[in-house]
Design goal:
The chain has about 170 residues and is α+β, with helices and mostly antiparallel strands. Helix content is about 25%, strand content about 30%. The longest helix has 19 residues.
Length: about 170
C-alpha cells in the first residue's frame, strides 16, 4: 500500500513539474555570463541597461552575469562602454534573442509555460554571444603631438571614412 501511494505521488509530482513549468525554463536559463576582453587590456568598462541604469563598472578582462529578461515579455538590452586614456571610446550593445526552447512549450510546457513562466522568468531570451572581444583604436588627439606619415593599411578602419582624396 505504501509503495502504491509513493508511486502515485511521484507521478503527480512529475506531471506537475512538466505542466507548471515552461520548456525554456527547464532546459535553458534566465541569466548568462558574459566574458569581456579588450586590446589593450585593463580598459575601464561601464555596463548600463536599456533604462540607462548602471549595472556594472570595472576593468577588462572580466566576466559579468546578466539577466536575460527585463520584465514580462521584455528582453534585456545592455550597452558596454569602453574607455581608456589615449584611445577612442567605444560603446557596444549586448542583445538577447528569442530562445528556440521557448517554442518547446507547444509540446511540453503548454500555455502556462508559453504565456506565464518563460516570459516572467526571462528564460524565453538567450544571449547572442557569451564573449565580447573589443579592440580600441588610438585616438587622433593622442597621436597629434607630431607629424606622422601612415600607410593606408596602417590607419584604423574608423579613420578611413574621414579620408579626403587629393
Amino acid at each position: 500500500m505504501f509503495k502504491a501511494i509513493y508511486l502515485r505521488m511521484s507521478v503527480i509530482l512529475m506531471a506537475a513539474i512538466f505542466v507548471l513549468s515552461g520548456c525554456a525554463s527547464i532546459v535553458s536559463k534566465s541569466v548568462y555570463p558574459l566574458s569581456i576582453n579588450s586590446h589593450p587590456s585593463n580598459v575601464a568598462i561601464m555596463i548600463t541597461d536599456k533604462k540607462g541604469k548602471e549595472i556594472f563598472r570595472g576593468n577588462t578582462p572580466v566576466t559579468v552575469v546578466l539577466n536575460a529578461g527585463s520584465g514580462y515579455f521584455s528582453r534585456a538590452e545592455y550597452q558596454v562602454k569602453f574607455s581608456s586614456p589615449g584611445f577612442d571610446e567605444k560603446i557596444v550593445p549586448v542583445t538577447f534573442k528569442i530562445d528556440g526552447w521557448y517554442f518547446g512549450n507547444i509540446f511540453f510546457g503548454g500555455l502556462i509555460g508559453m504565456l506565464i513562466i518563460d516570459p516572467a522568468t526571462g528564460a524565453m531570451w538567450k544571449l547572442d554571444s557569451e564573449f565580447l572581444n573589443i579592440t580600441l583604436n588610438p585616438s587622433i588627439a593622442s597621436t597629434a603631438t607630431g607629424l606622422k606619415i601612415l600607410d593606408i593599411h596602417e590607419i584604423p578602419q574608423d579613420w578611413k571614412a574621414h579620408l579626403v582624396k587629393l
